[in-house]
Design a protein that fits this description.
Elements: E1 36-37, E2 45-46, H1 53-57, E3 61-62, H2 64-71, H3 75-79, E4 84-87, E5 90-93, H4 111-116, H5 123-127, E6 130-135, E7 138-143, H6 148-151, E8 156-157, H7 162-169, E9 183-185, E10 188-189, H8 192-206, H9 213-229, H10 238-252, H11 264-278, H12 283-287, H13 289-309, H14 326-330, H15 338-354, H16 368-392, H17 400-413, H18 423-432, H19 437-444
Parallel strand pairs: 1-7
Antiparallel strand pairs: 2-8, 3-5, 4-5, 6-7, 9-10
Helix pairs in contact: 8-10, 8-15, 9-10, 9-16, 9-19, 11-13, 11-16, 15-17, 16-17, 16-19
Length: 452
Amino acid sequence: MASSLRSRGDKWGHDCVRPNMPAQSPAMNSNTSLPVIMPQIAGQQWSCHSCGDCCRTLVGDLTNDECASLDAHPWEDKIGAKPYVRIGRRAALNKRADGSCVFLDDQNRCIIHAQLGEQAKPLACRIFPFSVRRVENAWQASFRFDCPSASASKGKPISQYSSWLTALTQQLPYDYQLKKHDALDRGLLASQDEVAIITSRLSRWVKEKDLPVHARLIALSRVAVTLYDAKLVNVRGVRLGELLDILWQSATHGIDQPPAESTTRQRAMLRQLAFVHAEFVTLDELRAGLVGQMRKRWKQLNAARRFFAGKSTVPTLPGITGQATFEEVNAISPASQTSDVSELIERYLMSRTTSRSVFGSGYYGWPLAAGMAALTVSVSAIGWLARLQCAASGRSQLQLEDVTLAVAIVDRAATRLPAVGFAAERARIRYLTVEDGLARLLHSYPICAETT
């Protein structure tokens, strides 16, 4: 597993612990006795196939102990480069000019792994494409779709990694304390039982085979809109589950009637959300200092304005090969490979719901309604980014490869990129709850050619 946990903006990811803290002995660390709760994703498989993608696109943070371990070997003489670099108080595996890790050989194998064994690799490299965060009396595992083998579901059932992941959590660099902020609403925290109730409802809705995935998402968006105005303080425990059941039944009633087309402003908001998800910070940009960061910020602001305007050529986005105009993106037809594409989207949604990364501590501390709305918007962002890649490739209809790339981009940012959780993005999503905006965007940018 040659890889890294680093996504854009936040090195170990929002849903994982951070390195560079004083290491504690296992006897002092309460992490050692905690079980791991695996995400329940039907049919999801994974094994490392040594594609090297993670070693090229992600940035691997190191603990102080891992830096010391690298210093104990003459790596610079062997690989012809410094094994790691420091960025302020942080340290990360060094990169070559082409963006690949200095420990990646020409067969896409990790040199540390080959010479010293897997146990010698940094923890961030070993744990990918999983990540963990503390929940009540356990570690909650998440699964990442920015690994090609993960998105293609190639390898062993991920349930078989439970004991392996449990062993890795015992090596976490410090005693990570639980932060309780699973918010139902502003100032109203959910109990663990209520989190379980919500998670079970969300996963059940995602799996509801009586409705196409597209229709399920539209219904979910309308449940989220209703929850924004609901007074949940008097609807607690099992009554919360009963309320969610009623809202779902109401949202699915008459779902065969498609929403209206999205408005110009709603589409502009979506393009900006897609841009935020797709942004990428390279190791060189992290090392560029204040001037480099200001230059990067200026480019981001200019690009954000162009995405809002939606005219002429789409600014270059990391991960998207080629270019297209905004008009060409809007002209792309949904995919006809509905079984493969729908199955990928369903696995992504199951990953988010069963890893409890829809709201609260799993999603920037956002309350339930905002997190659910953000989940549906993320699928619209996938639809838009997939169209961009499709148009840039000179095709007119979405293919599985376009959707796979878009899922990887969006999932890499969701829960791990701080900018996605900023107040500005929450306000943008709140705006889209007005006038059925969430459902209208899903209708304007469908991923599959399904009828509701």
